[in-house]
Amino acid sequence: MFRNLTPTVRALLYVNFIVYGLEWLTGGRLLDTFALWPIGAERLEGGHPFEPWQLVTYAFLHDTRTIWHLLGNMFALYMFGPDAELALGWRRFSGYYFACVIGAGLTQLWVVQSFTPGEGETIGASGGIFGLLLFYGMTFPHRRLLLLFPPIPMPAWLFVTLYGILELSLGVFGQMQGVAHFAHLGGMATGLALILYWRAAGRRPAS
User: Fold this and answer.
1) Is the pLDDT of residue 168 over 80?
2) Among 146, 140, 144, 153, which Cα is nearest to 206's?
3) Which residues sit opposite 65 in a β-bridge?
4) Phi and psi (nearest 5°) for 61?
5) What single-letter DSSP state applies at residue 42?
6) Where do the domains of the chain lie?
7) Is 20 within 8 Å of 74 (Cβ atoms)?
């Protein structure tokens, strides 16, 4: 089944799993430098300074206390990434993915600085993954997706819409503490802005 992987998706999978192994070997010390730390976090106990590269590197780090954080993101990358890369081409796909990662990181920084000062670091590829979900739902809206729970088939556009509403609700009402819901929404918003720009410029990806 891995023969269907496209080059950039394959590389992202490899790098994420390798970095996860390095996190284990170093006892999580990679977080000190490469997680996304809030601006001014070095003034807090256990905090570290924000650096610009963290807006990219945080997306390659995952929670080593549970492998499901990594596996969930990588499964979504495996499921939705190849079709997105084939539609966009590897260069634009790479730019799109990392733009969503950065947009998610900036959104998280803004939310933390504005509403939850003192919150810790952010890690995980979810910002880029949610951007890919948004792209998939808009580019292949009528493809049927079968959820694991509940096992109900639905078109991609509906799945993505409901997922976005769920993330907004969880973020606004503070449910599932420790999950960066607004970073997820930031990834989707960045992806939406790029897609609308491409369509307005007459460079709509083929479906």
Assistant:
1) no
2) 140
3) none
4) -110, 145
5) G
6) 2-200
7) no
Q: Encode pLDDT of 45-72 as tens digits.
A: 677 889 999 999 999 999 988 898 899 8
SS3 of the chain: helix, strand, coil, percent, to 5:
65, 5, 30
Report how far apart, in Å, the C-alpha atoms of 105 and of each of 3, 50, 85, 199, 201 are.
32, 12, 22, 25, 26
HEC profile for 109-141?
A: HHHHHHHCCCCCCECCCHHHHHHHHHHHHHHCC
144-182: burial string, b at 16+ Cβ within 10 Å, e else: ebeeeeeeeeeebbebbeebbeebeebbeeeeeeeebbb
Q: Which two tokens stand for residue 64?
A: 């080593």
Coil vs helix vs strand at 144: strand
The closest alpha carbon to 66, from 126, 114, 31, 20, belongs to 20
pLDDT at 181 over 90: no
189 to 40, 90, 106, 107, 179: CA distances (angstroms): 26, 21, 12, 10, 18
pTM for this structure?
Answer: 0.89
CA dist., res. 16 & res. 11, Å (int): 9
**Residue 51 to residue 38: CA distance in whole angstroms:** 9
CATH class of 2-200: mainly alpha
> In terms of Cα–Cα distance, which of 63, 82, 100, 98 is closest to 183?
100
